[in-house]
Amino acid sequence: MTEQLEDYILRHIDPEPSHLYKLDRDTHIRLLYPRMCSGHMQGRLLKMLVRMIRPRRVLELGTYSGYSAQCLAEGLLDDGAVVHTIEIEDELEDFLREHFAQCPWGNRIKLHIGDAEQILPAIDETFDLVFIDANKRQYPDYYRLVMPHVRQGGFIVADNTLWDGKVAEHPAKAPDAQTAGIMRFNDMVASDPGVEKVIVPLRDGLTIIYKK
């Protein structure tokens, strides 16, 4: 996607809410790797997916600066619906809680700091929607981890599944660890008869998975 085309799209979709604009700015000023932030376009898509699916229980693996968690929470329609978001980097906790407190839908977000493998069993929920945007090396592990917790008819959305196009590079070139993790994940999903799936070439690739 060209910068010109992206600018055109951003002018023709819902505007970025002011608290998310501030969060994106703070992410770029205060945090490392700000490219990891979902941003305006993907954020509006995540909100729209939540509107369409109408989940009551949402799980996010990989909170980072909290942009996507806020968009997921914004889309919730049912009273009592909640987003559980898990972030392994405890140094982000103060930043996250600061911005969740400023978010109009912050009361819908439950932040968990730690390892998802330990935290998920303790949450003890069945989820209607799972958003995976964490360590790319571990995507296959995350898929195996969350699938038993997704209800039949529920969805998994995985970010970065095209990984700058590296997944389609010449096979003679040995992939780095993150690319290899994404490639294993993509192969795993493609060969799973228990799901329907589509890859949307938005930003760095977004895979939408439906559990039969």
From TrEMBL:
InterPro entries documented for this protein: Cation-dep_OMT, SAM-dependent_MTases_sf, SAM_O-MeTrfase
Molecular-function GO term, any one: O-methyltransferase activity
Species the sequence originates in: Sodaliphilus pleomorphus
UniProt xrefs under Pfam families: Methyltransf_3
Keyword field: Methyltransferase, S-adenosyl-L-methionine, Transferase
Name assigned to this protein: O-methyltransferase
Entry keyword annotation includes Nucleus: no
GO BP: any one term: methylation
Keyword Methyltransferase: yes
Top-level taxon of the source organism: Bacteria
